[in-house]
Structure formats: C-alpha cells, structure tokens
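Review form for a predicted model. The reviewer records the input and the model, then writes brief findings.
Reviewer: anonymous (R2)
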Amino acid sequence: MVDSTNYLHSHNLLSKDSLKCQLGNGTSIRFWKDLWLGEEPLSSRYNCMFSLDAKENFLLSERYSEGSWNRQWLRPITSGRTESSFESLQVELAKVTLSSSPDLWK
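Model under review:
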C-alpha cells in the first residue's frame, strides 16, 4: 500500500493530503524512502543524512525501540550542514511515536 500511494503521489495522480498514514508499529513503512512524515520522503529532504545511514531501506520498526530512535551512521555526525540536518531531523522525529498496532491507512 505504501509503494502504491508513493507512486500515485509522485505522478500527481493523488493529492498528498488525500491519504494519511497512521504509523502503527512501523513494520511496513520504510524510514527514508516512503512518504510518512512531511511532504516528501526523508531521503529527499535529508539527503546528506540519508547518505550517511548504514542501511537505506530499513523499516521504522527496525530503528524505533522503547520510545527512541536508534541510528547506525557510517561515520560520526560532524559540524556544518550535516549537524544542522541532523538537528532538524531530530526535531521532526521527536513528535513521532509508534504503537503496538499494525500500520493502517485512513
């Protein structure tokens, strides 16, 4: 369902506001590649962070545990643009929680 929705959004066949994701437990939503937070995939918005991640296609449920996000960077986050992007991403992720219920679409 996520891939189909992303396809429809990317080809302007479906408004980004017409379907909203309830995150549920995050077992079917890819962190970087799916449209689940904001108006475009996080891989586009935070490209420098995406390139530092050890795994491109991980699911939300693979990196969220006990109320916090676990990261696996290829190298440490340093100052400058990377640090600024990291801080912005942290602010967005602080508003997100996953539940024990399956991922749902409304």
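Findings: Residues 2-105 form one domain.
Further findings: Strands lie at 21-22, 64-65, 68-69, 104-105.
Recommendation: see findings above.
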